[in-house]
Amino acid sequence: MPADSALTRLDEPKNAIEIEPDVDLASNAVVVRGAFKSYGSFKVLRDFNMTVPRGGIYGLLGASGCGKTTLLECLIGRKRLNSGDIYVLGQKIPDAQNEQRIGYMPQKIGLYGDLTVEETLLFFGRVIEMKDAKIKERTEYLTELLDLRRRNVRLKHMSGGQQRRVSLAVAFLHEPELLILDEPTVGVDTVLRQLIWDHFLDLVHNGTVTVIITTHYIEETLQANLVGIMRKGCLIAEDTPKRLLREHEASSLEMVFLKLSVLQNQAQRRTSERVVEPLGSRFASKIDKAQRGWSLRGSHMRALIWKNAIWFRKNWRTFARALVLPVVMLSIYCAAIGHNPVEFPISVVNLETGPRNCSEHELRCDDPQLSCAFLNVLSRRKLVMKFYASEDVAMETVQKGESYASLTIKANYSKAIAERVSDWNRATDAQIDGATIDVFRDVSNSYMSLYMQVMLYQTFETFLYEYAQSCGLRKDLVKVPLRWGSLYEWMDTDFTDFTIPGALPLIVFTISILLTALAMYVERNEAGLERILVAGINKIELILSHIIVEAVALLPQIVFMMVFAFLVFNMTIKGSVVLTAILLYLAGILGICYGMFLSCAFKSQIAIALVTTGTYFIMVFTCGIVWPIQGMHPLLKKFSPYFPLTLPTDSLRNILHRNWDFFRPEVYVGFLSLGAWSLIFLLLSLIVIRIQRE
Ligand SMILES: Nc1ncnc2c1ncn2[C@@H]1O[C@H](COP(=O)(O)OP(=O)(O)OP(=O)(O)O)[C@@H](O)[C@H]1O
Predict the structure, then answer these.
(1) Which of 75, 270, 290, 382, by CA, is between 20 and 30 Å from 420?
(2) Taking the domains of the chain in order of start, what are their residue ranges?
(3) Taking every annotated instance into account, which residue ranges of this chain make up the domain ABC transmembrane type-2 (predicted)?
(4) How far apart are the first and last CA of the chain?
């Protein structure tokens, strides 16, 4: 890399620091001793030692992939060492609570693309409990300094270099004692880079602020007070730039770096020769480990909820889709599921009248064409009847899949039926046979086959009933001798009405999982998760803030969906609308908690999508949504009530169809089940994030 003329000044830095032979935690901003860190079997830091005195600039140099970012992430407590000690501003990492004293700029931008510069600074300022007036003042100053005058543009619409400058502004915002900056000048032009360095020099001028900076522009670290050179997980040199140049008789730091690399390759590893006093645990014990990471701060929660609400406002299209999606799913569901089949073909051979459609027929007692009267009743089912002259041809249409069944009506049908009805106990075999319609059906589609069976029973019963009436006979005589009394007679026998108490919670549950996973995905991948954690927000606050905002967004979804289900699609609702809404709302909360658990447990979106799909099918199959639990395998029947949507489905069915109130166990148990499962997934999320180690 050609040396930048503005940066190749070799004068002693304004605030040169003499390195103390003995290390004490008060005078050093960062002390690392005997640090080991590995990712699996790959060792990144090996017996790493570093000392950063307070009040200066420390430039950390090293080839790409040598572990600089890993080291910085260990310094801010985002990653844990396998062994060794780190003290930052006198406190032991990871127990230290000095977020407000540290400004961190990660290598990735780590900001929220939907916030503007002003909103970004306001958010991070509020997180670290700055007053709004102070944030405003700092915003004016930093946007001027970093040439970020277009403050109302969303970050995702800014250039990479501009975004890096916003990221730098966030690190500077609260005037921290220690700035940890991972490649802050990447993508920044030469003039601005020098301005930024001038600002670093200004900051460290009075000796209270320390800056640790990694960079690939090696020569810019000539302005640092100390330079550490990393290679293969060790610090191979740590000195002032001037002494490094002198000692290695080099004209640039790049040359020093090359020479040291060659030396290290020859196994002449050079480490800092300063003797370091062993670090005791005098500071470590002061921090209450148990409290860290579990507490909720009002300022954090307010800032996070504000930020999430802004995200929702700016992404109103996503929110509108979230509102419409359940309704679309419900509409498709209601349009597709539960209706009786119509307009399917059946083949008819009427040997009494020949192959013609005679279903437009008026029934008489002495009717010589009762077969037409039967077909007339059948035609009310809106089938497509095709007429054939021969039984063999009609059966062939079934074999070829052109028809679901063939009906063959005998030539003496009217006479045989009339005699069977009027003198049934003397009917001969020939009369019984003549009055029998032969049905040949395709049973490969069992639902259609079953439907046809029921349909033909009912058709025949209605036909006989009407025939008996026309002959002045007692109509009950020919009816199937069963008298039905119905308890909830308002219930539509439509299958959709049976499944809707399961379908509604299932739709809310599934969409809530997906929306939560999406929000967490944005948080983790597009936004500043790293950054806000470093700013002191803990993951519990993060999780709760998302749950709160999503729980609010869930309300209009439920209202919208209920309007469609009960007003537009006229699903039966005999019980309390409020209880129904609460139950569906709790199903949504369960979805949010489960989605949160999945987001905590799995980093990959694909894994989350797969588990969500699996969960959806398990719920559909096991919770009595599409098939009664009474018909399941005994083992599944035993465990089904413990699945999250089984009891709520029953409970909703009892509310919607039986008009039962909340205080019946069959109703409130569904609410309790949703509450308990939500709590379980919330706790699991907290446990997972608590035990996750990087
Ligand atoms: N989470 C992880 N899992 C496995 N390996 C990792 C992980 N993070 C980093 N590494 C590996 O550790 C090594 C050091 O990575 P690190 O990001 O600390 O390097 P770096 O010096 O900052 O590089 P650069 O200058 O290119 O940013 C690299 O080889 C990287 O692939």
Answers:
(1) 382
(2) 20-101+210-263, 298-335+494-692, 345-477
(3) 449-692
(4) 34
Burial of 582: CB neighbours in 10 Å, binned 0-12, 13-18, 19+:
middle
Q: What is the ipTM of this complex?
A: 0.96
- The angle that helices 132-145 and 117-127 make with each other, rounded to 10 degrees, is 130
Q: What is the CATH number of domain 345-477?
A: 3.40.1710
Residue 67 Cβ contacting ligand 1 at under 6 Å: yes
Tens-digit pLDDT profile for residues 590-643:
999 999 999 888 888 889 889 999 999 988 888 887 788 888 888 888 888 889
Q: Residue 591 in 3-state DSSP? A: helix
The alpha-helical segments, DSSP class H, found in 522-641 are 529-534, 539-562, 577-601, 605-622, 634-639
Q: Is the CB of 107 under 6 A from ligand 1?
A: yes
State the residue for tokens 């699609």: 569
Cβ of 241 below 6 Å from ligand 1: no
Regions of the chain with pLDDT less than 50: 1-21, 267-292, 694
Dihedral of CA atoms 527, 126, 308, 160 in degrees, nearest 10, equals -30
687 is written with which tokens? 């446990």
CA–centroid distance, residue 180 to ligand 1 (Å): 17
44 CB within 6 A, ligand 1: yes
Structure tokens given for 145: 């300094």
The DSSP line for 529-558 is HHHHHHTT--HHHHHHHHHHHHHHHHHHHH
Looking from the CA of residue 40, the nearest atom of ligand 1 is: 4
- Residue 266: predicted pLDDT: 60
Q: Is the pTM of this model over 0.80?
A: no
Q: Could you write out the DSSP letters of every residue in 419-450?
A: HHHHTGGG--HHHHHHTPPEEEE--SSHHHHH
Model confidence over 343-395: pLDDT tens digits?
Answer: 999 999 999 998 888 888 888 888 889 999 999 999 998 899 999 999 999 99
- How far is the C-alpha of 325 from the C-alpha of 557, rounded, in Å? 9
Coil vs helix vs strand at 510: helix
Chain position carrying tokens 């069977």: 420
Q: How far is the CA of 78 from the centre of ligand 1 (A)?
A: 14
Which tens digit of pLDDT belongs to each residue from 633-688? 888 888 888 899 999 999 999 999 999 999 999 999 999 999 999 999 999 998 88
Instruction: Please check whether the domain covering 20-101+210-263 is classified as CATH 3.40.50.1000.
Output: no
pLDDT of residue 528: 63
